[in-house]
Amino acid sequence: MKALVYTGPEAMAYQDMPDPIPNAGEHLIRVDSVGICGSDMHAYLGHDDRRPAPLILGHEAAGVIVGGPQDGRRVTINPLVTCGTCPACTSGRENLCPSRQIISMPPREGAFAQFVSMPDSNLVTVPGDVSLAKAALAEPLAVSWHAVRLGLAALHPSADRSALVLGGGAIGLAAALALRAMGVEAITIVEPNETRRAFLTDRCGENAVAACETSHAIVVDAVGYAATRATASALAEPGGVILHIGLGEDMGGLDIRRMTLQEITFIGTYTYTAEDFRQTAAAIFDGRLGPLDWTETRGLSDGAQAFADIRAGRVPTPKIILTPQG
Question: Domain range for residue 90?
């Protein structure tokens, strides 16, 4: 098969790779659409020791089962593979499974390829009237769906339902969509990139600004740098909630004294549960998350250029979808 392989910092090669061989209980899936994630970019820049080169990246995917009794079934892929038997898994918190694996991280190759192998339990059937490109957004949308669900559960019932989202990439926009789907209407997205900010405003209808100084009950940090954590801890209102999704850098930024004195809840949130993924897919299929028309599509063979364009800030859309079969 053809695959886009990460070969070293800022280096991607479109090359032949062995077809995956499904394990027991797994299906071979012909990948139709796969998104470029921020974590793929971290690996591309050489900033993620969990993803050493050479490696096939990509974990936001949808496609069609090839062979076997389910041949032709259209599916979106939950890339988080868990043991199913530990206390985290049996309590519905699969994202905390100590032996969790995710495709695009050893030992599992990713979906920037023509084929990928996945367990049946990780697949959600996609209705015939929903495009697989849209279905591939289930993974990044589920990340924010999970975070917003946790944040609203932690927010005091008396708090106003206003939210500030730091970062207007796919995860930040997904957070705004999830917030709105769960009843929060007053949402502001802070996005410093002028081109992307204009896209969020004009194409997505979001309230996107270059900066904000107003406090909010919920602050979502979809970037994860010291500077954005500093903004989050400054602008979360007393009794508010910070949802930290971004993994930009490890240390710094939080005003722990203010967070303690003002009883601000900080929630670090990673991926999603299997139920979050199913709920997100259902929300995509029934339109609760909007038209989801804010992506750009390119062929997998052009993937190296797509990474370079994202790196250079030349991409206004929050998400590039690659099509391996084109």
Answer: 2-137+292-323
pTM above 0.85, yes or no: yes
Please state, in angstroms and rounded to a whole number, the distance separating the CA atoms of residues 60 and 76. 9
Q: Report the SS3 class of residue 229.
A: helix
In angstroms, the CA 235 to CA 242 distance is 9
- For 257-284, give one letter per residue: b (16+ CB within 10 A) or e: eebeeeebbbeebebbbbebbebbbebb
Pair 43, 131 in one domain: yes
User: Which pLDDT tens digit goes with each residue over 204-232?
Assistant: 999 999 999 999 999 999 999 999 999 99
> What is the pLDDT averaged over residues 94-101?
95
Residue 224 near residue 139 (C-beta atoms within 8 A): no
In a domain, 283, yes or no: no
Structure-token pair, residue 293: 């028309």
The number of distinct structural domains making up the chain is: 2
Comparing C-alpha atoms, which of 47, 66, 60, 59 is closest to residue 8? 47
Backbone angles phi, psi at 3, to 5 degrees: -150, 155
User: Does residue 297 sit within a domain?
Assistant: yes
Q: Per the domain annotation, does 70 fall within a domain?
A: yes
Minimal CA–CA distance to 146: which of 122, 177, 178, 168?
Answer: 178
Q: What would the pLDDT profile of 262-273 be if each residue is shown by its tens digit?
A: 999 999 999 999
Q: Say yes or no: 150 and 162 in one domain.
A: yes
Is the same domain home to 133 and 7?
yes
Residue 43 structure tokens? 């690996």
Ordered alpha helix ranges (H), the chain: 38-44, 87-90, 132-135, 138-154, 170-181, 194-202, 226-235, 256-261, 274-285, 303-311
- CA-to-CA distance for 88 and 95, rounded, in angstroms? 8
